[in-house]
Protein 1
Amino acid sequence: MIARLRHRIDGWFLSRRPPSDRIELTQRNVYILPTRAGWMLGATLLVLLIASINYQLNLGYLLTFLLAGSVAVGMHVCHATLRGLAMHLLPPDPQFAGAAAVLRVVLDNSRRSTRHGIGMSVRGSGQWAWSDVPAQGSATVDIAFKAEHRGLHPVPPFTAETRFPLGTFRVWTVWRPAAKVLVYPAPEPHPPALPPGEPRVDSPQLAGARAQHAGDYDGIRPYRRGDPLKMIVWKKVARAEAAGSSDLYSRDAQQAQRQELWLDAQHCGLADHEARVSRLCAWVIMADKLGLDYGLRVAGRTIAPSLGEAHRRQCLEALARC
């Protein structure tokens, strides 16, 4: 019951925060309350005051009001440390499901003194990233965010706080960014080999090609003297060198003219949709590392064969949204 009530209050509180990727902290959106140490210090000052009144101790009065003045100054400094700070969220990069995404927040300080001990975290996560912001400068804070499921997720609300200088007060704010982070599906840990290539539709050997090329599609052959440098598959050469081999590999242009590599959800051999998406994701990464031209068919969407980073991102985005 208490948890449900707290959840409703938290939802009502966040709904009053308009989403924005940039926020400037003012007195309207910065809050302050004593910490546990602050409440203990307040109780100690009350005891000192009562004892000083009861026994008429002038030094007791001096100590009590000296400490109370220090607490008042600390409260003002603590609130001013966060007030006036500007925060800006950089566009988040896509991440794979189950992996920690890094959300980068830039803190801008326009005043002539350093702001110390500013912490940021995803609201409710309990994991804090702390930073000092130099005078009339900026600092970047990296905040971890882990999404368990693929898709387009809104960036969760942030909490920024400080307890500088005495730790007796906690000054905090809640920020609700408007950006969204794209989460790719988690690739299958140990996927099978790439599916066999399919004959091109315009190939004159359409009838016999499907039977001849039942093996795994790779589109790669050993290097032959006279092959142009642009045909060399440098990624495969680098892996061969790491394994202690000096062999070179080139693209098989003739095979590429006869076959196309299609990553099709119907060829995964799995009944569960999420398992098929996970296998397709692993195949996309595998084909990209091999430097192959590949196409994708999933959930009624077809992406024509190509290669490169932009094609890889397009395929992974399609898998994230299907």
Protein 2
Amino acid sequence: MVFTRDEDLYWRCRRFSDRGKPFNTQASSNVRAGLNLNGNDLAAAVGRVQLRRLPDIIRRRREVVARLKEAIGSCTAVRAGREVADTEGVYWFVRFAVNTDLLRIGKEQFARAVAAEGIPVSPSYRHIPSEAEWFRERRVFPPSDYPWGLPAYRGDRDATFPCPTAVEAAESHFTLSIHENFGAGEIADIAAALKKVEDAYLQ
């Protein structure tokens, strides 16, 4: 807990406690590295109970996604995002890949059209650390120049670090918010919306 009458210190602590989010700034991305300590006592009390339910929540989300993958089997331009072999997702959200070579519109327009059908999708989830302002301006833990300024640092002093594969993955996918209580109706609605939009824009 931090108590302060120093407004600048307050905002610095607030940013650090929530992954460097740009609270009270004009920045368009996170402004520094930080932790994810933005909870409170009530959230902790609820979280302790939810942890006991977590295995069942994960199992049910996996079932929802398995049924959803089956339901969109007839789609040609959209499919569930790639998953690494021998792994299982817990599905905070579901990623969908869009093959825009088969469509007359781009991925963002496709996702917005699906959202217009009432499906909770987001066109992009592009949060690549090396693109963040705090990384590009070498303000990971201000006011220090860590890690570039460490005497033992032997890496590149340039704070640019392109990640073309990560960018390609982010720009070819959109995300769908799901819930473990989704049933046949929700799955059918999602599949129908994806198919409807795909059919409308196939080349």
